[in-house]
């Protein structure tokens, strides 16, 4: 039964990744798919499946945790770029204070 459902609903998986935002609730994700994808809701009815069951059929694409969706990244490379950009953010310089100095002494030297 699940293999037939999976085969019938597979064409809608890519749209799930593009339409639904990371961290969306199940109800808002279902509403977005209903509005944005022609024939999706009708196919769910034909398969006698809920939106939750649709998401659970494709665990490599999306997962449900505490009522929210977690969408798998399109590629690990994109995830790496995001982390690298975050690491390249400018930081405030670290001020080293000598034992005999106070912070006010350091501020006057700059």
A few lines on this structure:
By secondary structure, the chain is mostly helical. 54% of the residues lie in helices and 7% in strands. It has one domain.
Please give a structural write-up.
The chain is 54% helix and 7% strand. The longest helix is centred in the last third of the chain and has 12 residues, at 76-87. It has seven helices and two strands, in the order H-H-H-H-H-E-E-H-H. The radius of gyration is 24 Å and the shape is elongated. The termini are far apart. Strands 1-2 form a two-stranded antiparallel sheet. The model has no long low-confidence stretch (mean pLDDT 77). The chain has one domain (2-86). The protein has 110 residues and is mainly alpha-helical.
Topology:
Blueprint: H1 2-9, H2 13-19, H3 26-36, H4 40-46, H5 51-57, E1 62-65, E2 68-71, H6 76-87, H7 103-109
Percent in helix: 40-55%
Mean pLDDT: 77
How would you sum up the global shape? elongated
Query: Cα distance, first to last residue?
Result: 72 Å
Order of helices and strands: HHHHHEEHH
Q: Low-confidence stretches at least 5 residues in length (pLDDT < 50)? A: none
- Total number of beta strands: 2
What amount of the residues lies in strands? 5-15%
Radius of gyration: 24 Å
Question: What structural class should be given to the helix and strand makeup?
Answer: mainly alpha
Q: Within the largest sheet, what's the order of strands?
A: 1-2
The main sheet comes to: 2 strands, antiparallel
The number of distinct structural domains comes to 1
Q: Given the structure, what is the number of helices?
A: 7
């Amino acid at each position: 039964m699940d293999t037939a459902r999976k085969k019938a609903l597979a064409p809608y998986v890519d749209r799930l990744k593009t339409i639904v935002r990371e961290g969306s609730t199940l109800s808002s994700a279902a509403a977005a798919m209903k509005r944005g994808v022609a024939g999706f809701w009708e196919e769910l009815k034909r398969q006698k499946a809920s939106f939750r069951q649709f998401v659970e059929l494709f665990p490599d694409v999306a997962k449900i945790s505490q009522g929210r969706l977690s969408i798998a990244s399109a590629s690990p490379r994109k995830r790496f770029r995001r982390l690298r950009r975050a690491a390249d953010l400018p930081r405030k310089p670290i001020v080293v204070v000598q034992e005999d100095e106070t912070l006010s002494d350091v501020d006057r030297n700059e």
